[in-house]
Amino acid sequence: MHASSKGAASKGASIRRADRARQVADVLRQQIHGGAFEDALPSEAELTAEFAVSRNTVRDALALLKDEGLIGRAPKVGTHVAQRKYDHGLDALLGLKETLRGHGEVHNEVRAATRVLPPPAVARKLRLAPGEQAVYIERLRYLGDLPLSLDLTYLVPDIGDEVITRDLETNDVFALIEQISGGPLGSADLALEAITADAHSAMTLQMPEGGALLLLERLTKLEDGRPVDLEYIRMRGDRITMRGSLTRPPERTDWRLI
After folding, report:
1. Predicted model pTM
2. Tens digits of per-residue pLDDT, 42-63?
3. Largest CA distance in the chain
4. Which of 31, 32, 91, 256 is the right S-S partner for 244, CB 3.0 to 4.6 Å?
């Protein structure tokens, strides 16, 4: 075999092993988040048999999870869960306090609560008249002592003016809006993307600069369709997993090739 051909074959084998390691890591990651392992993970030998891969592939997969901070490894001790993520649903309109009920106490550090002249794009989404002010709230949200998200919220003034007179340290804004409006929230439009943490966000959320953040833009409406709340929420990607249940629309279930 020519040297170049041998090198290509070697490179191909390396890529295949890396692909398999990612596959193993993806399954183990979700098992960790789902609580499949109370503390210790199965041994390398057990994982090798379970996934039908080489021990080196298992070690590569565990190295990926260790780099993410999900597991710890030590000689003669084995592999253990270092931290778990908290599930945040995408298929129900809930505040963080409602979402994490059962995991601990959510409390907020209120960094700003005031009237502002919003950016035009924000004003349009909230259907505000030109020059009309919005109420702006910025909160750093904790689960116990752990900072989980940095929330920037714009509210329509007739509701927002009343919201900022209430207890923002222990309440979800959603619950306050429903109390003030006298009716339930109806729906929300959202966009979710991954971004890296800038220096200020990283310092505020006590995470490494350049670490993974989930940025959620959510426009929430009352039951009658009126938009009242526009949020930009930075959530720690190392501590939160977004989950939801989706249903395929009936008009798109035709599997036949055209």
Report:
1. 0.79
2. 999 999 999 999 999 999 999 9
3. 78
4. 91
